[in-house]
Amino acid sequence: MYTASSKPTKSQTARRHFLKRLGVLGVVSAAAPVLLSVARGADKKSTGIKSDAVSSKHRWGLLIDTSKCASGCDACVRGCHAEHGISSTGNDHTDAQWIRKIDLQDNLTGTLSSLPMMCQHCKTAPCVDVCPTGASFKRADGIVLVNKHTCIGCRYCVLACPYKARSFIHEPITDQQSWAPRGKGTVESCTLCVHRVDAEEDQQPACAVACTNEAHSAILFGDLNDAESEISLAIEQGQAHEVRSDLHLNTGVRYIDL
What we know:
Layout: H1 10-22, H2 32-40, H3 44-47, E1 60-65, H4 75-84, E2 99-105, E3 112-118, H5 126-130, E4 136-138, E5 144-146, H6 156-160, E6 167-168, E7 187-188, H7 194-199, H8 206-213, E8 219-223, H9 230-238, E9 253-256
Parallel strand pairs: 1-9
Antiparallel strand pairs: 1-8, 2-3, 4-5, 6-7
Helix pairs in contact: 4-8
């Protein structure tokens, strides 16, 4: 991997030609500095991203209170799509789903719950474990991402994710956002709005902002490593749960009243 200012080696050039023939390099090369920067920090003046290196001092996550999540409301989905330039292709089976709303019913009590489901940003991430190229990776601060320049579209990660949180891009992408590079033949999922995190650590992701704007305030973003943070205090008081806790993945997304 190289930045826009460095010269590729012969092996790197050969690899890129090979991947182009496979049709997996659907992301424009101008996005390369952004992809690199989210992994290790970059110059904020040139990219809009702070220069501080990503650190394990933080672990970013979400807390979702299902008692506040309204059935039928998809504000979080619409907010995510608007933020990242995601639009429908007209095919529900192949449309990207960085976040989706699902309804659950407790078979014992009949209690209904409505909640958003997205990448759970697991500490022990199955998608990372099975990726043959290292395209799926977890940052030091716990955010799980996909490097579109090394993703070969094998979809092992799609099969490995127990939350069905990853999408494969079947169609050409147009009108991309510079902070959310996407490309046909690659896999993608929720990034926790990493561009916002890297610009300003306390910036809420688009889904949380949209939920708050709808007066539900069901989604809270914060630092799970900070015992005094709002999200950590809420988790301690609210009996938060992991979805599929039996898998021992230590998810970065927790749910209250589930």
